[in-house]
Structure prediction request, 357 residues.
Amino acid sequence: MARRALLVGINDYRGIGDLKGCHNDISNMRDILKTCLGFTNNDIRVVADARATKQAILYRLEYMVNIARPGDFMVFHFSGHGSQIRDRNGDELEDYMDELICPWDMNWDNGFILDDDLDAIFKRIPEGALLEVFLDACHSGTGTRSANLGRPAEASPDHPTVSRYLPPPIDISFRHEDDEDALKKVRGFRSVNRAGSRSTENHILWSGCRSDQTSADAYINGAYNGAFTYYFCKHMRETGGSISRANLLERIRKSLRYNGFSQVPQLACSGGDACNNNPLQFPAPDETRRLLYLTTPYLRGDDVRQLQRALANAGYKISADGVFGPHTREIVRQFQRDNDLVVDGIAGAGVYGALFG
Prediction:
C-alpha cells in the first residue's frame, strides 16, 4: 500500500496575473501530509511556477495513476488560477461550460487543463485505489476581474483579498452568451452532477468554492494563502486528522463564513461512506479505532455503525445508522455502567475491549 502526492502551486504565471498564496498552500498541505498522515519526502512531489507546465502536470498525474495498485492512496492538490470555456464535446448538460485549471504556461489556444483531461486520467484509477483531489482555484463564469470577497478578521487593510478566477478573452467568453448555441451540451469538476460515465467512483474531490463563486487569495495571519486551503489545514491540525470529511467540510465552511468569505467549499465523494471517513487516508483498521463521542457536527462513519451493531447484538436498543448522536451516547453510557467502566459516553479502548474482546 503506497502513498503518493502531487502538489502544484503557481504564484508567478507567464503572461497573466500573478497570485501570492499558492506556494504557502502547497507548503501547508505538504506539512499536513507529513505530520498528520505519515507521508515521507519521497512520497510527495511538489511542482511550482515555471515547472508547473501543462505537460509536466499531466505527465506527473498520469504517472501517479498508472503505477497505482489496489490499496494505494494518492493526493493531487492544485493551487492557482481557474476558469471556464464553452463545452465542445457534449458532456456538460447542466451549464454547457468546461471548467479548467491554468498551468504556468496558460494560453487560450489549448494551453490549459480541462476537467475532461483530468477525468480521462481519473478513469484509469484501479479498483481498490483512491485519489483525493483538492482544487483551490476559481471556476466561476460570473466572477469579476478583481472580486471583492470581503476580508478575514486577521487581514490587514493594506493587503487586499483577490480572486483566483482568470476571465477568458472576449472571443472565448462570448461563447457563453449563445453565440454558439449549436455547441450546447454537466458541470466540470463537480463530477457528481455529470452525465454519462463520469463519476467520483475512485476519487474524492474538494473544491474551494461553488461553481458560481470565486476562491480567495487572501492575507491571513501575516501571509498570503488560499482561504480554503488555509482553513482545511488549520482544522486538520486541530483534530490531528481524526475527523470525518463531512465534519471537516462543515468546520471549513463555518470558519470561512465567520471570517467574511463568501465562498462555500464543496465535497464530492466516492460511493459508500467515503464522506464519513477521515480525510487523506483509507478508513483506519480496527486496531487503530478512533475515539467516538458526541460532538457537533455528529461523528459519522463505518466505525460508528460497527459500534452500534455490536451494542445492538449485546441487547441494547439502538439502530445502526452510522451517526454518533445523543441516543448513541446514552447507550454507550449504559453499556459502561453495566460493565463497570468509566461512565463518560466515550467509546474508547475500554468499550471496544468489552464489546469486541
User: Anything to note?
Assistant: The domain at 3-276 is CATH 3.40.50.1460 (Rossmann fold). The first strand starts at residue 3 and ends at 9. The chain has two domains: 3-276, 286-356.
